[in-house]
Amino acid sequence: MSLPAPQMDHSEQSSPEYVRLSLAAAMTLDLAPGIFYRGARLGCINLLLTYPGGCKANCSFCGLARDNRVRRGDPRYEKFIRVAWRAWPLDEVLQRCATAPDWVERVCISMITHRRSVADTIDICAQVRQRTGLPVSVLIAPTLTNREDLEAMRRAGADRVGVAIDAGTPELFEQLRGKPVKGPHQWGRYWQVFDDAVGVFGRGMAGVHLIYGLGERERDIIGKIDRARRLGGCTHLFCFFPERFSRLADRPQPPASGYRRVQMARWLIDNDLTRAEHMTFDQQGRVLEFGVSAEVYEQALASGRPFMTSGCAGASGEVACNRPYGNEKPGPDLRNYPFMPEPEDIELIRSQICQY
Ligand code: SF4
Predict the structure, then answer these.
(1) Low-confidence stretches of the chain (pLDDT beneath 70)
(2) What is the structure's pLDDT at 339?
(3) N vs C: which end of the chain shows fewer Cβ within 10 Å?
(4) Residues framing ligand 1 (Cβ under 6 A)
């Protein structure tokens, strides 16, 4: 097995003085060289809290999981959403965010499961607001975060919140994130905290993260997208990508066809054009009809919008958190388009969405 060249060892650097940046964010802030495939532009600087010893949870699909450290050995090989996240001094990151290109419309602070995460998120959120003026999302760790914490994050200046439920069924959640893998997370608590987040941040200002391809049926995940909408939120969708050294490192990425149907369903549900109960499914839980007219379906497909990355919006009202190539390697097999799909992309999507 060949391994990539080691990155800097960030394992002893700690928030709030340090935060980790995705490669895309480091490139956007001129901290790392590189160009984006097809000229994509990152609209949200994603910050990840970091602590010696790392995340205390053990989710099977996550590159940061506690047990991965044993499997990968060297901490410098740690990856999250496909890429290495190097730690940088917060002061330097904030200076660069304050003069970031004008397509950067948001900052997101991602917690990990660590006892200092809540206090540090509040502290960093206030600093980002004061020094950059950019809107801030918080991607919270619900196991550690209660309603009072959400209120404190809002007072510190956050305007949106993400809750990474990730798994599309309670059984998968338990199996991949709960007791069977010696993890602390609980399905019921995640949904309760999401409900609290809508209460604190307002309708439309909280989103769940869901990952397609963890072993659920299309019908299962669409039911949770619908649940999030009924609770007053929306869904930010991800397509499973096998993280090196994770428990699911050998699970293949799901075919594009099912993901296209789930993307279409999400877009229609989050735009209040259909509901899960109006849709029809085959015996394997795959979508047959979306519960909208042929005209609405065709307009949605031809627009390409359902297949763009779903995430927190910026001041323009368009999605800022477009996470270029966080779900796949840059190349022709894109799952979340970080830009408006071109006519040739739409033709590819049109052929994929009707494959069973
Ligand atoms: S969609 Fe993006 S900005 Fe919003 S909470 Fe999730 S990671 Fe953060």
Answers:
(1) 1-11, 70-78
(2) 97
(3) N
(4) 44, 46, 108, 137, 139, 160, 162, 207, 209, 236, 311-312, 321
For 18-253, give the CATH class.
Answer: alpha beta
The 10 Å CB-count burial string (b at 16+, else e) for 124-155 is bbbbbbeebebbbbbbbbbbbbeeebbebbbe
Instruction: Say if CB 46 and CB 25 are below 8 A apart.
Output: yes
Q: CB–CB of 276/226 below 8 Å?
A: yes
Q: What is the pLDDT of residue 2?
A: 41
Q: What is the pLDDT of residue 3?
A: 43
**Atom 8, ligand 1: residue with shortest CA distance:** 108
Domain definitions of the chain by residue range:
18-253
- The pTM of the full predicted model, rounded to 2 decimals, is 0.94
Token duo for residue 284: 């394997």
Tell me the sheet residues that pair with 210.
166, 237
Minimal-distance CA residue to ligand 1 atom 2: 321
| Structure confidence at residue 66 (pLDDT) | 85
Instruction: In whole angstroms, give the CA distance from residue 59 to residue 277.
Output: 31
Expressed in angstroms and rounded, the spacing between residue 240 Cα and the centre of ligand 1 is: 16
Is the separation of the CB atoms in 202 and 150 below 8 Å?
Answer: no
| Spacing, Cα 93 to ligand 1 middle (Å) | 18
The 10s digit of each residue's pLDDT in 283-293 is: 999 999 999 99
Which residue is closest in CA terms to ligand 1's atom 5?
A: 162
Q: Which atom of ligand 1 is nearest to the CA of 164?
A: 6
- d(CA 197, ligand 1 centre) in Å: 14
- Cα separation, 289 vs 187, in Å, equals 29
